[in-house]
Design a protein that fits this description.
The complex is a heterodimer of chains A (457) and B (438). With 457 residues, chain A is an alpha+beta fold. Chain A folds into two domains: 214 residues, 2-Layer Sandwich (PmbA/TldD fold), CATH 3.30.2290; 234 residues, no CATH class. Chain A has ten helices and 24 strands. Chain B is an alpha+beta fold. Chain B has two domains: 193 residues, 2-Layer Sandwich (PmbA/TldD fold); 237 residues, no CATH class. Helix content of chain B is 19%, strand content 37%. Chain B is built from ten helices and 19 strands. Chain B has a six-stranded antiparallel sheet with strand order 3-2-1-4-5-6. A five-stranded mixed beta barrel of chain B has the order 7-14-15-17-19. In chain B, strands 10-9-8-13 form a four-stranded antiparallel sheet, with no helix packed on it. Chain B is globular and about 70 Å long. The model of chain B has no long low-confidence stretch (mean pLDDT 94). Classes of the chains: A alpha+beta (457), B alpha+beta (438). Chains A and B meet through β2, β3, α2 and β15 of A and β1, β2, β3, α2 and α4 of B. β3 of chain A pairs parallel with β2 of chain B.
Chain lengths: 457, 438
Amino acid sequence: MKERLARIVADLAADYADIRYEENKKTRVAYRGKRLELVSSYATSGGHVRVYADGGKATASFSDPGRVGSIADASLASARLAAKGRDRPLRLADAPVVTGEFPVSPRVDPLTVKLEEKIELLRHYNDLILREPDVLTSEAEYDEFGSKRLFVNSEGSIIEYELLNIGIFGRIVTKRGNVVQRVRFAFGGNEDFSRLYDRDEELMERVAIARKLLDASPPRAGIYPVILDPDEAAVFIHEAFGHLSEADGLQNNPAFREKLKIGTTLGREILNVTDDPTIPGHPGSYDIDDEGVAGVKTRLITDGVLTGRLHSRETAAEFGEPLSGNMRAVDAHFTPIVRMSNIFIEPGNSSFEEMVASIDDGYYLVGARGGQTSGDQFTFGAQWGYRIENGRLGGMVRDINMSGELFSTLRAISMIGSDLSFGERGGCGKGMPMQLNRKSGKGAPHIKIDRVTLGGV
Amino acid sequence: MHELIEKARRSVDGAELYWKRDHTISVRYENYRLQGMTEDELSSVALRVIAGARLGATYGVNPEEPGLIEQAKQAARFGDEAGFSFAGKADYESVENYDKRSEALTSADLVALCERVKERIAEERPEIPLFIVAGATKRDLVVETTAGAAGRDTSTRVTLGFGAPIKGAGIGVYKSDASVSPLDLDPALIDEFLEWYGWTENKSTPKTGRLPIILAPEAAYLFLLPLAAGLSGEAVEKGTSPLIDKIGERIVSERLTVIDDPLRDGDPGSRPFDDEGVPCRRRPLLDAGVLTDYLTDLRTGAALGRPSTGNGLKRELFGGGTETRPNPWPVNITVEPGDTPYREMISSLDEGLLVTGGMGFHSGNYPQGEFAVQAIGFHIKNGKVVGRLDRTMISGNIYKDFKDVAAVSRERRLGLGGMLPGGPVPYILVDSLRVAGE
């Protein structure tokens, strides 16, 4: 297969061509309450071709590897046709030729663990939740995605690499009277099955919070200084800022491209934001992207100033900026697009206690609960929180939504903690058609934002 | 009969093969430039089996792949009790959902279509970052069971979408069209896009309280998706549907007749059988506001002690696909037209909203008929559109607020907006919905 595909791209009369071929294994187990709702384990395969010719581009996904030769020929014809529809040719930034193998090496390989054992482990955690008082129901899911990929391009790169991502995650649902509360949990987020063992204590802490929330009250609506815990801060930086670092989104959006020129001051000197696939063990860690480019650490914001961006070879050429190795596809059905790897706010010098002490009238928000961004506007939920009055943590609050505008909120980050931590569940949706990528990590320390709008009563 | 089904017959109690092959070409323009082309040839398979009265499923690329039956049997060991049998032999109605001219379309044809859209819009709006996406798919679908169902269908679908973001708004104006046959440039669609885009220049804030609302076909899902969730046999079986025990009752205005019409010739959603091989039928769901029936697939039908209505689809709120378990959904939902010209709806209003979409729908309690969204659309005053909405929330409950519908338009377009694609729907003028500022 390797030699055959390499020959096809080498012989194609294109400016550039590549083929990615994948064999993927997926396993999912899901409990809803007591019911084992889903057990599914299966394999799929397929590939993707990209051709650049005369400055035009064409891509193709295929299921049958026997058809790849004629598919590549058709893509070449399409790319030439596409070139006629452009006044400026598409170019690719130069990238090193890479040959080699990049396997993953988990301490405990999930592929060696029997399906029965996976179900049993999930059942164990699910039972722990369900036996507690006030618990209405649970959602618990085991998710495993393994991908063996082969990448060849017309420049001579031949790369075999693996992706492996497993996790247990879910929600605890508590109810008393008419009040229903939900708290999430997630373990894993990398290739190592052993990370899923012995998490009872953390899970029970989450259950306790879901119970306590039944007695909490919503915050008073208004504008406040807030502290975000690492989980909420990480989602904020990923959703509100990170997506605007992805050059393919900016490429044809003149308004934001102007606002986000390298060298623009976006925050105070304490603010540093980095994207880094090379730190091991997080959901967005990898060696090589789906365009055959090695992943590198990219400093997106340095001392408050925009210093970097995430690129494909195409956008790096278009922007005249360095390669970052962020082109990724969820599976063979999709063309790669520019995506964050592990994005995080670098640790600062403040302690959590200093942050609390600095607030007279505000809130501490904990745990991300989804949200929506549109351009530079964002709205995010928090799973729970605490009132802060006169420099002290007070009672628990629930049903929290914060909203704001990205640029003013970045400038309002006034303290950054030293306690950087990464989430154990990856996940990010982007693209048309939508690609839901679980290999997307995020992290942050505690941060203080001087002004955020909170919804509530 | 596929060999896999023959083989399965020997080792399990029942089996169902779902095999989908799509050949899709598409072209994409961004900011008036041809950004790229795709041509995909994708095959995917779902095999469900009943073994030891339990249901198991597995997935793969094609039915010849080794190990599918064994994998499905393994899944059945942990599976639920099936409680139903796979679809039996049936005669399927014929429906015009294939056009050989669509199968023959090339990338160059799609480029030509996009170029015409581009030229027409560039005449008036050269400054906007226009995107255009055009695509053509030929689908071969096979659903076969050991109980004798033998569904084979070849369909085509041609799509066109275009739009542009509104400067400083974080949203845009979008239009789309779809057909079984090759699409031509529809001047009315372009004109409406240009008119709507022109209306976005000013922001205008309506008064808060209750106001009349015109739902454009793009926003019809705000009504149809909560309705579909209530009609779903799954919600009826679980006891959570607000429509339990309401068959024969008027639940919304008598002006609203909603029909699931999978056999409508020429609609891109039309098909002779569902994803479980059960024949699709034209079925009124609301007849002049009166609830006529629920939607079932094999599983929920059996749980309710009745047959499948041919509504088992591998669909979810966001997408779905071969690996999705079948659930009851409308196949090609349509709303009957009324007799009011849509322009008259606008000119009849002292103050109101023309709603063309919504943000945040899925976080509302839509299974109970409720919706609360940030409305995308326009503010109407003294019979004229005066500007675009900005951070305006609309909310309501379809079973309360759609009891009073003032008019339904004579014009219809495919309801392609949002999360419930379907057949043609008109503009609907609702007497009043709650409107709130931020």
